[in-house]
Every structure is written in structure tokens, then in C-alpha cells.
Design a protein that fits this description.
Length: about 350
């Protein structure tokens, strides 16, 4: 059955006899989080019947459901979703900043990031990542991607037009599902719907050079983040076997022509692993690699999990690494890992529960 969450506003308009109703329907599903057609009170009964017949299954417009929610001590929430074909995948709700008040006035509102999955499992096989250990099942559909945002917003009591950040850093490699991810981005950014500006959406990739070029040609206005993690091909191939096909030189070349808007930068993610890639020698090599790029480096301390041989670096080595980059003109930040205690941090997402 077709999903209403897989349609752009234009597609929904084209499918309706009364085209002006499409905006009303978008408001119902993306602003009021309507669960079914009956919830859309101001629509004619004939149209509600049509929506129900076309898009509902078991009295619901949704094709995924929440199987389990875990909450971290830091407020991060990890969602295990069940699909219609009885598979599962995870998404993460992260509260990045609390509301800041002064004299009973809101100075800064809360800041949220949603970490979305694009596949069930992953094909890339990064040795440090728990997701890859579970194997690859399939790509997520457009509606399964969009519905993650709807569920996370609704379940956390966020207003439909509340500004949030989206990062495609959950399960899977987004560029291996580019067609569905790119359409989902267009739906998420529609001003009549969730209105999440493309500049607030980031696609993280392990480095599939041809698809980076294809993403650039689409000119969606999204940000791109490369999971670099190593400064030479020998180590990167050990960490990310796909580097044999798309090595560092090929990947960086594909990024040189990526369209950047205004003052934006290419984000380079660097997973810092104790005694593997955390030395000042590595930092020096990274500076040379990124010469000529308008770059920002996100240093991510390795998040331990039971199946990995690697260890988390010391905060001292992280600070030395960060300072070295900063002193040489490269904007570098140390990412505060959220949700480690519920395995919701980078590299930890993986189905741990059997779905019945």
C-alpha cells in the first residue's frame, strides 16, 4: 500500500481532485501528527474516506511502529522501530542544549538533533562499528525515513514547526540509498510540512566517491560529513575495508567540487582511537591532507562496545590533537558523546532485541 509519507506536496496535489486540500493534509500529518484520516476533522468525509482507503493499514497512516525506547542518563532517547515486514532499526533523539532563561524571558530555546537511519543494517563493514556486525537487510523507504522524524517529534512533545537538526548518522550508509534519502530530504524541508531547512540536515558518508559527486549535482543544500578516521590508506583500509575501492585521494577529490553555501564548511569526522590514530604525528598528517579545504574537523572519541578490540583515548590526547589543529587554522571540536550508557552513541547502533 502507498504511504502518504512518501509523497511530496506536489505529488499529493497531483493525486487529489481538490488540489488545495493537499496543504491541509500536510498540516494534519506534519503539524498535528494525525494518526489516521479520522483525525483530520476539517476535511470532507469523502476525502477522509479516500485517504483511509489509499494510505491506511490497520487504522494507521504509519508503516513503522515503536518497539522499544531506552533513555540515557543524559536525556538521550534511543528508539527501536519495527517495520511492516518485521525488521527493525534504530533512531536517536538528542537534546543538545537546555532552554536558557533570563528574567523570565527565553534567551535561547532548546536545541535538538535527530540521528536518523537510512538502512536496516549496513553494507560498508567498518571494523569499529557495531551496526555492521548485524549484517545488511535492506534500504529504508522514503516514508520510513520521514516517519522517524514524525515519531521523534510527536513522542517528545515538540511542536510541528519546532526547528531541529537532522543527521543521517544512524544505521546504514546514506549514499547507498541516495534516491530515497534525497527525496526524504525534500519532504522534510517542505515549508508546508516539517519545514526542516536543508542547511539543518547533514549526510554522513564513509566515502563513496561517485555518490558524493551525485549528491553534489542534486544541489539539495544539505551539509556533508565525511567519516575520514585515518590519515593514510593503510590504516583507513584496516578500519574501513571499502577504502580499497575509494581511497583517500579519490574521496577528497570528489569533495573538492561539492557545492558549499555561504560560510559553510566540509565536515570531516575523525574517530579518535587510543594508540591507533591519536598522535601528534597523525594530527600533522591531517593538517596536510585538508590543505585547501574549507574544513571543520569533528573529533569523536571512540565509543566502546563489547565486540571491539579498540579503546577510548584519553581526554589529554584528544585535547592535544584538537589544539594542534586549531593552532594551524583548522576549526576542530571534540564531540561530546551522548547516550553511551544505552548504546546510542556513534558506532553503537544495532538491533539488540528480537522482534516478534
Amino acid at each position: 500500500m502507498e504511504s502518504i509519507f512518501s509523497l511530496t506536496l506536489d505529488e499529493l496535489q497531483d493525486s487529489l481532485a481538490q488540489k488545495f486540500r493537499a496543504k491541509q493534509i500536510f498540516h494534519w500529518i506534519y503539524s498535528h501528527y494525525a494518526h489516521n484520516a479520522r483525525d483530520m476533522k476539517n476535511l470532507p468525509s469523502t476525502l477522509r474516506d479516500e485517504i483511509s482507503q489509499r494510505f491506511e493499514c490497520n487504522d494507521s497512516l504509519h508503516s513503522i511502529s515503536i518497539a522499544k525506547i531506552e533513555e540515557s542518563s543524559d536525556g538521550t532517547r534511543k528508539y527501536l522501530f519495527r517495520t511492516k515486514d518485521n525488521h527493525s532499526f534504530e533512531s536517536v533523539f538528542i537534546k543538545m542544549r537546555e532552554k536558557i532563561m533570563k528574567n523570565e524571558r527565553v534567551i535561547k530555546s532548546e536545541k535538538y538533533t535527530f540521528c536518523l537511519s537510512s538502512q536496516i543494517g549496513c553494507q560498508v563493514g567498518c571494523v569499529f562499528c557495531s551496526t555492521a556486525k548485524g549484517g545488511f537487510v535492506r534500504n529504508l523507504s522514503v516514508n520510513e525515513i520521514v516517519e522517524q522524524v514524525v515519531f521523534l517529534k510527536r513522542d517528545n512533545g515538540l511542536d510541528g514547526n519546532k526547528s531541529i537538526n537532522i543527521v543521517f548518522m544512524g544505521m546504514g550508509e546514506p549514499l547507498l540509498n541516495l534516491s530515497n534519502v534525497s527525496k526524504a530530504i525534500k519532504i522534510l524541508s517542505c515549508t508546508e510540512g516539517l519545514s526542516i531547512a536543508p542547511r539543518r540536515q547533514t549526510i554522513s558518508t564513509s566515502g563513496i566517491a561517485p555518490q558524493i559527486e551525485n549528491l553534489g549535482k542534486l544541489d539539495l543544500g544539505v551539509q556533508i560529513a565525511l567519516s575520514l578516521h585515518a590519515v593514510n590508506d593503510e590504516l583507513r583500509t584496516r578500519l574501513i575495508p571499502m577504502n580499497r575501492v575509494y581511497n583517500i585521494e579519490k574521496i577528497l577529490e570528489s569533495l573538492r567540487n561539492f557545492p558549499l553555501k555561504n560560510r559553510r564548511r566540509i565536515l570531516f569526522e575523525y574517530l579518535v582511537i587510543k594508540d591507533v590514530n591519536d598522535s601528534i604525528k597523525d594530527a600533522k598528517s591531517l593538517v596536510r591532507l585538508l590543505h585547501g579545504f574549507k574544513a571543520k574537523v569533528n573529533l569523536i572519541p571512540f565509543n566502546p562496545h563489547e565486540e571491539s578490540e579498540f579503546e577510548r583515548p584519553s581526554m589529554e590526547s584528544l585535547k592535544h590533537f584538537s589544539d594542534y589543529l586549531y593552532q594551524r587554522g583548522i576549526l576542530a571540536t571534540i564531540r561530546e558523546s551522548k547516550g553511551i550508557d544505552i548504546s546510542a552513541a556513534c558506532g553503537q547502533l544495532r538491533q539488540k532485541y528480537h522482534i516478534h
